[in-house]
Write a structure and sequence with these properties.
The chain is α+β, with helices and mostly antiparallel strands. It is built from four helices and 13 strands. The strands form three sheets. The protein has a six-stranded mixed barrel. A four-stranded mixed β-sheet has the order 10-7-9-12. A three-stranded antiparallel β-sheet has the order 8-13-11, with no helix packed on it. Strand 5 and strand 6 form a beta hairpin. The longest helix is centred in the last third of the chain and has 14 residues. 23% of the residues are buried.
């Protein structure tokens, strides 16, 4: 489990000022925390960290020497500045189920030669105890053919008795559909060929 270092932040200093100074702000909340703990983390460290862990990841948050087993609950991005504005963490309690999401990772999709690979769901929502948290669901889709469909109920995660999936089990995760050339595109191609002759 990866560890991210954070400092407690004073609410006297505005988040905007901290962001200008190169920090990402955040909050830690949980059943055993009164209110929440406002924190700040160096932006460079956070960006490096998020290359490996993301929303739904279970990490260790070190707040000035105190370790918290947390879930990355939410990440707020700034579309204008192109950076991370805020991260919310949920402190985990071993006997308490938490709501989380797992990112879908499709492997070998470049091996699908017939049809077009379509992704319908990029993440799955579920409830689990901290010991059963997963942040990524990897699926090898290299053998899929036209007409093949993967539904939520087909995922290994759906068979895990320690995980309660809250996304509709019948929802389509990914599929392979036949390639349909639009009639207009074919006409344009024929016209272009006629012009070059």
């Amino acid at each position: 489990m990866n560890t991210l270092k954070a400092e407690k932040r004073s609410m006297d200093v505005k988040a905007k000022k901290l962001r200008r100074e190169g920090y990402v702000v955040g909050n830690v909340f949980g059943r055993e925390i009164e209110g929440s703990i406002p924190v700040k983390m160096p932006r460079g460290e956070v960006e490096k960290f998020l290359k490996v862990d993301g929303k739904g990841s279970q990490i260790m948050l070190d707040i000035e020497g105190t370790q918290y087993d947390v879930l990355i609950k939410d990440i707020a991005y700034n579309p204008i500045a192109g950076g991370i504005d805020e991260i919310d963490f949920q402190a985990l309690v071993s006997n308490e189920m938490v709501h989380s999401v797992a990112e879908m990772v499709f492997e070998n999709h470049e091996k699908i030669l017939s049809g077009v690979f379509q992704v319908d769901l990029e993440e799955i929502a579920y409830k689990a105890y901290p010991s059963a948290i997963v942040d990524k669901v990897r699926i090898d889709v290299g053998d899929m053919k036209v007409g093949d469909v993967i539904r939520v109920k087909d995922l290994p995660l759906a068979a895990d008795k320690d995980v309660h999936i809250t996304t509709d089990l019948e929802a389509v995760v990914a599929s392979v559909v036949a390639v349909h050339n639009a009639p207009e595109a074919e006409e344009e191609t024929e016209e272009a060929e006629a012009e070059t002759k």
